[in-house]
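B., you asked whether I could sanity-check this one before it goes into the benchmark set. Here's the sequence:
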Amino acid sequence: MKKLQILGTGCPKCKMLAELTETTAKELGIEYEIEKVTNINEIMKFGVMMTPALAVDGRVKVVGKVPSPDEIKKMLA
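And here's what the prediction gave me:
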């Protein structure tokens, strides 16, 4: 099971990233758990200074933008 973490304070881009990530994971048919990390101190522990960010299994994959569904597929594969 993949652990997908959306790092962000709840801005529109953060919500968009969460929706896209969840939709893409469902399309790929992978088992996943999604977690929204909104605490700024927790976000900083990942070394992230710009949101939104996506971490897959504890590794940050994208920072400061909402990637395309194809880009997310590559990150989850």
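One thing to flag: The chain has three helices and four strands. Otherwise nothing jumped out at me.
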